[in-house]
Design brief:
Strand order of the largest sheet: 1-2-3
Distance between the termini: 20 Å
Number of strands: 6
Oligomer: single chain
Helix content: 25-40%
Number of helices: 3
Length: about 110
């Protein structure tokens, strides 16, 4: 939640296909220091019946891949999963976080 907290977060995750370490810094206003530069993130798209944004419907299906090319074979077996450049995935995550905060404030 770097955007909400106003803090940066160091992220590292191994590509499940190549075992390459993907590293980045998530800052309140975007992504920095992405290595490898062409890394992508998978995002699971829940079906309409389970459209709640929970760790199980979203985060559990998000993986960092060293590149789009590496991830395509993995994605083929998971047709409801999207592959996004890391910066684009960060924007999606920011919007989801903002919506969760808005909903919590209404309670």
């Amino acid at each position: 939640y770097p955007a909400i907290l106003g803090l940066a977060a160091d992220v590292s995750s191994r590509c499940p296909i190549t075992d390459t370490m993907v590293r980045l810094v998530v800052q309140p206003d975007g992504i920095a220091d992405l290595q490898p530069a062409g890394a992508v993130v998978s995002i699971g798209v829940p079906d309409e019946a389970s459209c709640a944004c929970t760790r199980n419907t979203f985060c559990a299906h998000s993986y960092y891949f060293a590149s789009q090319e590496v991830a395509q074979g993995w994605q083929t077996a998971r047709p409801t999963t999207l592959l996004l450049p890391v910066a684009d995935a960060a924007l999606v995550a920011r919007e989801i976080t903002a919506e969760r905060v808005r909903r919590a404030q209404r309670l």
